[in-house]
C-alpha cells in the first residue's frame, strides 16, 4: 500500500485536488492523507465542505501583512516539522503554481519523498508574469518525479527544459471537478435562483472575475472603464455580474467606479455558486486560470483579461480570446460576441482542449504502473 499526501492551500488547488482525493481514497491500494496550508482560509473551507474532504493536517499559515519570503520560509519549515516528519509518505501530490506548491516541493525534496506535480508544464515564458507563479512552476518541475500535464503543449514545454521522464498528458482535473460539482449543484438549483433573484437573468449575463497582481492599478482602472462602457451601451439587454475579490487593490476601485444599475457587484462566490453562475452566463471576462479551463465545458466564450497566459491551448482552440486590460479590445470583443451569433457560436461550440472528466483515473492508473 502506497502512502499518499495531498498537500494544498488555496481554493483553486482544492477544487482540482478534490476529484483526485476521491479517486485515490476509493482504491484500497492507497493510504490517503490530506494536508492544507490554508493560504485561502474561508474560500478553501467552502470547497472542502462542498466536496466532503476530510483534512488530516491543517497549518492555518496566514498572518496579517505576511510577506512572500516570510510565507515561503514558514511553509517549508512547518510542512516539514508538522507533517512530513510525522509519517513515511511515498508520494506528495502538489497542484499548480502557488507558494504552497513550491514550498511543499522543496520540503518533500529535502526529505527524499517523490513529488507528483498535477497540472505540470504550464508556461507563460515570462518569469515575472504571472508573479511569482511562473517561477513556482519552473522550480517545481525540476524537483518533481512525476509530471501530469493537461495538454500536449504542457508536455512540449517540459521537454524543451530537458524534463522527459515520467511525463504524462492526462487532461486537467478541473474538468473532473466541474462535472462532479454540476451534479451536486443541479440538486439544489432552486436555492441559487432564490439567492440571486436580484439579477435579471432574462438579460444576457456577463460574468467578470479579476484579481491578479498584474492587473492592480492602472490596468484594473482600464478594465473598469471598459465594463462601464459596455454597461452603458447595452443598458437594456446586458447584466454585468462581478463577484469582487476582497483584496483592497481590487475592491476599493471596483466599488468606487463601477456604479450602474445593470452592474451587480457581489461578494466572492463559493465554488458551487460560481459554477452555477458560469452555467447561467453568456460571456465570461476573467484573469483566472481555472475559469479559462472550465468555461469551454459549459460552452461559454472567455475574454482573458491578461496579455500572456500559460493556457494558450484555449486560445489556440478558439475557446478564449486574450484582451488584456486594453479597454478598446475588451469593448470590441464583447460587442462582437453580443451582436454576432455566428461569431459567438464558433467560440462557444469549440472543443475543450483541457479534458473530458477522466483525468483523475488516468493519473491513478499511471502511478499504479510505476
Automatic annotation (TrEMBL):
One of the Pfam families matching this protein, by short name: Epimerase_2
Enzyme class: isomerase
EC number(s) reported in the record: 5.1.3.14
Keyword Isomerase applies: yes
Domain UDP-N-acetylglucosamine 2-epimerase intervals: 26-367
Top-level taxon: Bacteria
Family listed: Belongs to the UDP-N-acetylglucosamine 2-epimerase family.
Name of protein: UDP-N-acetylglucosamine 2-epimerase (non-hydrolyzing)
Species this chain originates from: Flavobacterium cheonanense
PANTHER family, per database record: UDP-N-ACETYLGLUCOSAMINE 2-EPIMERASE
UniProt KW keywords: Isomerase
